[in-house]
Amino acid sequence: MMPADDAIALAASPTLPLGCGPLLPGPVQDPKPLRQKVFEHVRATGTAARADVSRALGISAGSVTQLTSDLIERGFLRETDDNPRDRRDAGRGRPAVALTVVPESRRVIGIKLSDERHTAVLADFAGTILAEAMLPTPAVRKTLDQIAEETAALVERVLEQAGLHRDAISAVGIGISGLVEPIEGTIPWSPLIAGKDLPLRAALNRRLGLPVLIDNDANMLTLAELWFGAGRAMSDFAVVTIEHGVGMGLVVGNRLYRGTRGMGMELGHTKVHLDGALCRCGQRGCLEAYLADYALAREAATALGRNPRAMASAQAMLETLFAEAKGGNMAARSIFRRAGRYLAVGLSNVIQLFDPELIILSGERMRYDYLYADEVMAETLELTLNHGRSPCRVETHNWGDMVWARGAAALALGYVTDTALGQGAA
Ligand SMILES: [Zn+2]
After folding, report:
1. Residue 242 backbone dihedrals phi, psi, to 5 degrees
2. Which residues pair with 141 in a beta bridge?
3. Which of 286, 350, 407, 421 would disulfide-bridge 279, Cβ 3.0–4.6 Å?
4. Which long-range contacts (CB under 8 A, 24 or more apart) does 384-388 make?
5. What sign does the dihedral 337-342-347-351 (CA atoms) show?
6. Which residues are near ligand 1, the ion (C-beta closer than 5 Å)?
7. Residues β-bridged to residue 78
């Protein structure tokens, strides 16, 4: 119990006014202007008649007519005959006209910066991917300038694929692993770039001459699920990704949760073992130190009796380890089994903390099926207090390596939508 003196000291805190109760208002209604809501509804449904918009958003037919004619006039929406309601309304002698997004009204590029290759997609305002590109890169830490150069080269490559000029692009979204401060546009720490507190957004902004958004790569994967995947129709879910590191993204109330400094959700660096294995962050006992590919590769060298320096990369080492485990090598199997048990610990902690509807296991390297075996899922549920309620669903999504870049494109699309139609837009 709190001693009485502390209670008094708390009430008399000079920074707080007298009184009691929360000083901040509760969750407010979505502050987006109605025209943005109308646009986003049409984009989310593909095509929508005015009556559908009116019903879905609970606004009058008159308002919808006014807002949509404004959006049409400004070139963001157009009318289309391609309306599934056509047949029904044609019987009444009045052709129903649906609305759809003008795809070419804005275009964005989404990029995932990675340790062995960078990937990019170019998307239109309707979210359709028009082109993809990839840039192999040496797996060493780069300087900020090198990263900016490589990003610019990749942007040129994807523009060439799409047959477009840089002027056609409204914004570039960037996903990168490590600690990212999306508001300030800085990288306190990343395994890809040497140095600390790097002004990545400013550097890319200067180099590309375009607005740039940066965010953690696990958040990009989560945005990909929220914009293009299973998360579109779900208000609360988590995404856990196991690759070079272990990342996590969380959607609460249809929004990406970012924490106060944009540095939350670092599942990979939650501690699962006091004084445990050394993590590449410099601390010990992080989940990542037992689960990420470098952690598995570290053990693989011993199990396979190979010199870790002789292998081309951690990835090559893992491929060999996986083949050995499949072929019955017990030491190789025990490495995956142990990693699977640590994954179960991590997942059960996520369920225990957030109680999500669904956890999506996603990422590029989602093929080590020992990690996603039934026994890992069973162990996850065993470690979770459940009391007979239906357990959290865990799904594995294997999207291919362009999914991160698609999420980064969603980040850019969100920004461009806010800029064009949000509060303060002309
Ligand atoms: Zn760590």
Report:
1. -120, 110
2. none
3. 286
4. 384/348, 384/351, 384/352, 385/352
5. positive
6. 269, 279, 281, 283, 286
7. 100
